[in-house]
Amino acid sequence: MISAPGAALVLHRAVALGLASDALLAELLRDTPWRTGDVVLFGKRYLQPRLFAWYGDPGASYRYSGTTLEPLPWTARLDDLRRRMERLADAPFNSVLLNYYRDQQDAMGLHADDEPELGDRPVIASLSLGEARPFRLRHRHDKAVKALKLPLPSGSVLVMAGDTQVNWKHEIPRQARPCGPRVNLTFRYIHPSR
Ligand SMILES: O=C(O)CCC(=O)C(=O)O
Ligand SMILES: [Mn+2]
């Protein structure tokens, strides 16, 4: 449990993934059709300093710039991870966004996962593999609340729930010091009809 006013954050360290976290990282780096491009996903423009891939159930598509980004079908590995994350977070997931931060220059800007497709109080399970990049959280409404900096170790899962997205934004800042690759998987539930 991480103490942050108006947020529900639980960090699980060393979660059972079915294989070692470094083996899983190597497998995902090798097998994922990583892409980049001019895509807006969850309100963020994806000409980004990182690569990504989007998997999910057939209905869990995301509309952007008049187009629909269809999810790739679940691989056996990602489906197995999805079930593990559902048990851990006690919530259903029908999609996963993979982000690949190749080195210290790859990053994700400050944002909240508060798009209507995600529903009002989304449960998001965030599995980190590889380099333990700092995950920064800032309160959206109260400047007096101190920012948080959580290193997310390889094999850890951060579950964000409750009003976390209403009250906080988060980011993976660029780093000055060289670092190795990191892959993050955010398991989400997309409401197809919204
Ligand atoms: O890489 C991370 O830990 C965060 C990813 C994230 O915030 C997102 O995909 O929305
Ligand atoms: Mn996010």
> For the largest beta sheet, what order do the strands appear in spatially?
1-12-9-14-7-4
Q: State the secondary-structure class.
A: alpha+beta
**What would CATH call the architecture?**
Sandwich
Ligands, ions, cofactors: 2-oxoglutaric acid, manganese (II) ion
Q: What is the highest CATH level, the class?
A: Mainly Beta
Query: Number of folding domains?
Result: 1
| Largest sheet entry | 6 strands, antiparallel
Q: What is the tally of helical segments? A: 3
Radius of gyration: 16 Å
CATH overall fold name: Jelly Rolls
Question: What's the multimeric state?
Answer: single chain
Mean pLDDT: 92
CATH superfamily: Alpha-ketoglutarate-dependent dioxygenase AlkB-like
Shape: globular
Residue ranges: pLDDT <50 for 5 or more in a row?
Answer: none
* N-to-C CA distance: 31 Å
SS elements, strand count: 14
Share in β-strands: 25-35%
Helix-strand topology string: EHEEEEEHEEEEEEHEE
Helix content: 10-25%
Provide structural commentary.
- 15% of the residues lie in helices and 35% in strands.
- With 194 residues, it is α+β, with helices and mostly antiparallel strands.
- It has one domain: Sandwich (Jelly Rolls).
- Strand 5 and strand 6 form a beta hairpin.
- The longest helix has 14 residues, at 76-89.
- It is globular.
- The protein starts with 7 loop residues before the first strand and ends in a 6-residue tail after the last strand.
- The structure holds 2-oxoglutaric acid and manganese (II) ion.
- Residues 97, 99, 108, 113, 126, 128, 135, 152, 170, 172, 184, 186 line the site of 2-oxoglutaric acid.
